[in-house]
Design a protein that fits this description.
three-stranded antiparallel beta sheet; alpha+beta; elongated; 149 residues
Length: 149
């Protein structure tokens, strides 16, 4: 089934792409969440005109993300947390904590979903944290977890 993506779906397609998908995927996910529409003859013609505008927007977004990547990679983030008598952190450090620290210290507004962590950080130390901004743009930021005085 040929569809036009009106919104980006990570790992599947970007906004403006025209792709073939399975019927069930379209019917159960893409259509109810308004991520794609069925590609008919008239819609395809109209969409080709809109596609140029979408591609320009995508390039502008990519430029902004590259600038954020450049600023993030050259900096170090420090987070202070309380620790237990055994030396572990109370509650750990999660994606939202790292995103908030980046916003406060680097003045970069990134969503918590851009921070890639396998699990919460539970110990003091320096960690290389991966940031995935989308559009194939990734950065690595050193995050130092220290004891709160």
């Amino acid at each position: 089934m040929k569809v036009i993506f009106v919104d980006s779906v990570p790992g599947v397609a970007m906004k403006g792409d025209v792709k073939n998908v399975k019927n069930g995927f379209f019917r159960n996910f893409l259509l109810p969440y308004k991520k794609a529409v069925l590609a008919t003859g008239n819609l395809l013609k109209d969409w080709e005109d809109k596609r140029k505008k979408v591609m320009i927007e995508r390039e502008e977004l990519r430029g902004k993300l590259e600038e954020i990547k450049r600023r993030a990679e050259g900096a170090k983030v420090k987070i202070e947390k309380k620790i237990t008598t055994k030396g572990t952190l109370y509650g750990g450090v999660k994606e939202a904590d790292i995103a908030a620290a980046i916003k406060d210290q680097l003045n970069l507004d990134i969503p918590a979903s851009a921070v890639v962590l396998d699990k919460a950080i539970k110990a003091i130390g320096t960690y290389e944290i991966k940031l995935n901004f989308g559009e194939g743009i990734e950065a690595t930021v050193p995050v130092e977890i220290t004891k709160k005085a």
